[in-house]
Design brief:
about 775 residues; mainly alpha; 2 domains; three-stranded antiparallel sheet; 25 helices
Amino acid sequence: MKFGKEFVSQMVPEWQEAYLDYKSLKALLKDLLRFLQTRTPTAMASTPNGSVLNRRASLYRAFSGLTCRHRDSPRAKEDEEILVTEDGEDGRYQTFVTVSDEERGYEVKFFNELDHEFNKVVGFYKKKVKEVVEEADELSRQMDALIALRLKVDNPMVDFGDGPQSAVHPINGRSAGGQHMDVIEEVEMMEDEDRGDNEPKTRTQKANGGIEGFKPPQLEILEHVKINVAPETPVSTLKGIILNSENQELSFSKKELRKAEEQMKQAFNEFYQKLRLLKSYCFLNQLAFSKIMKKHDKITSRNASKVHLNMLETSYLGTCDDVSRLIERVEATFIKHFANGNHRKGMKTLRPTARREKHRSTFVLGLFSGCSIALVVAIIVLIHARGLLESEGRSLYMENIFPLYSLFGFIVLHMVIFSANIYYWRRYRVNYSFIFGFKKGTELGYRQSFLMSSGLAVLALAGVLSNLDMEMDPSTQSFRALTELVPLGLVIVLVGIMLCPFNIVYRSSRFFLIQAVVHCVCAPLYKVTLPDFFLADQLTSQVQAFRSLEFYVCYYGWGDFKKRSHNCLDSHVYKTFYFIVAIIPYWIRSLQCLRRLVEEKDGMQGLNGLKYFSTIVAVAMRTSFDMKKGMKWKILAMTSSIVATVVSTYWDIVIDWGLLRRNSENRWLRDKLLIPNKSVYFVAMVLNVLLRLAWMQSVLGFREAPFIHRTALVAIVACLEIIRRGIWNFFRLENEHLNNVGKYRAFKSVPLPFNYYHDEGKSI
């Protein structure tokens, strides 16, 4: 792989604009190369070292600034053409170039761009290093409070007081410090500027309770901190509402300690990943700078890279080792305090291994896909050979069996669409794993997602084939009970796999999905995160699947499945729940918007909640029209559906996708686009409108078409809505990713367990 592609593939997606623009610099060198290749021999004169120069040379500076020589830049005779200087005020670098009159424009343009890119990289790196140093200071303060809390929980009677010596335990007379400090020996995260050395300070606790080079954490720290109680569960949320306080006094309980340790472990893990990516950022930019200068030397036959690489080594990018030292100290601290000194266990947590692609997964995926296609062909041939479409039992089958298997069709289609989403997110470098908050190495790829969907498709199609019997057995006037129970058995198997506690079938992903489902069901009692409202949006496109589940309960609970008969449509209870299950997803989404409105004070969340409420009204009117008919209900249903469709379509395109910006760089789109072909965005907007209109089919009178049963038409419309949701998924996450890129937001915010009193009113 060429370096340019490798460079792009290893970038932090959210920081891509802060990297050296290797592509544009390479394009400038290509322009220079074309110019040199088209020059006439008479216009050239060779220098002793082989470089091509005009004897009438002048000094041109790339851009304004101080012109003093760089102290540490050795300059040989063959390097007289290149001079790099540093502005002492802000540390910016400038390049002076001696070139011929003809080459002047190309050389000056290249070095001007090179200086601009290098100063951009150095400035960004300085800013990020300053941020991580400040964050390290805060983590150090948090660790002081955690260690003091550990001591207090392990030995509630201990009290260090104000002096440097440890108090004597009132029970056994031993030094309280001597009993516990052996597990608190710590490598400090920040260097001691007063001592002037760059090595970590080791705190050692002597056996007699005396302290050398170590001041024990004073328990009085606990008098100046509160524990941050994030409302993460329904109980804690209700307690926070009743107490009207987010911070509570420390109770010094083991449960409180475990919670604080878990939060600190997560904070250290996230901080360590930030340090690693920052170190990678530094290395990649240095490598790109070296590569582009070597290309320049090869094209111009000069030795300009020598001066520039020396400048690189003496710049902040090459001399600052704060990140490397912090990485070492975070590793030592994490292993000591959160891995019980087990280096292997600690590093496994800090550096989880990525999921490896297995050949057997690809083989099984191909097998399941082939079986699915074969089963579809077998079903089509069987229907055509037996003439089942003209059979008397056609209506009986469509009203009883088809709704049962359509549930699996909706799930499989949604999984296939989501697999396509993952594929295109990866192709266009949308950092979906960070956006969803997946743990590194646990996120599913498009192959794994498609593998599960094809496996479920094989089971469902095999069941359809076993149930493809339109006539009752004349001798028993009933169908075979075993085959009639196949759909119910498939549902039980599917639920069993989802809830399976064993580490099979992507357990981490299954549990992540279950957690998101619980958060949706209990809305608004859980804090709303992107995975929660993203899943709730998916559920709004699966209304027909919820109604199929309701039909399962009615058909197998109160119907006579052996004779394929039921009276669900005549039951008032069924009709009531038929209405309720349709509005549940939209109601969940409205409650999530309400929670975010209260917490974030964002008025847009209130408008979003009203959008979902308008959809609830539209669904209620449509359901009432389905059950009661009549012109009045039809007008109400049509009016509410038109309003909900217009509002939802506008919100999808303008708010969720960020498109239709009139004054953007890409007219009627947005400033930044990931897909080079702009027509894709216009096609997506048109498809979104058309598929939204399909949502109104129930109130426009298109209930049944020739050769298409009513239930089949409903299923087709539901499938169109799932496809529309798949299109929405890609552009929604693309917009979220570009927002992260614009803010250089590559890490999630981790709440810290302790809040110092003097820090109240400002975020930690």
